[in-house]
Amino acid sequence: MKRWMTAVGVVLALQTAGTASVRAADFNVRGVQTQISRHALGLSARLRLRLSSKAREALRKGIPLHVVIDVDLLRHRHILWDQSIASWSLHRSLRFHALSREYLVAGAGDTGYGSFSTLEGALGYLGHISMLRLPLGRHGPLPAGGEYRLRLRVYLDIGALPSPLQPLAYASPAWHLSSGWTTWSVGP
User: Fold this and answer.
1) What pLDDT, on a 0 to 100 scale, did the predictor assign at position 130?
2) Residue 50 and residue 41: Cα distance in Å, rounded?
């Protein structure tokens, strides 16, 4: 009986430790600033990106992680639902280079490329967007005087993981890292 209770205690401790590491991992949108012109949206954002222990371990073993930032520009309407004006998906990747012992960030838009000696430095760089210009293309020029909103989310792209790892990632909450959609007012 004593052995059984000890085994149950060990299992519960491991399960609780795993749950705590999942809770410590999260993606959040901390702040957004926008500037809209007739032909483009200027976007600055602060994202907090904290990886789970499983994602950190995979990264250290050479598996690249891909982060996607989805941005939607909406025109607010009082009677009907908001109208979608334009959408963008920004793709960024994070790798660990074992030979140099550096974390490498590659991305679209303002980040370009960077190398960092710490994971926290790489995640900070990855989560910083500084006045990125998003062209409206066929959606512009925007009519003056409209009330616009921005929806933004950031998530870890599980579908970009190597095929053998994907089933495990889909089944484990440690890999489901997403900020969910947040909505922000768009300034002039």
Assistant:
1) 87
2) 27
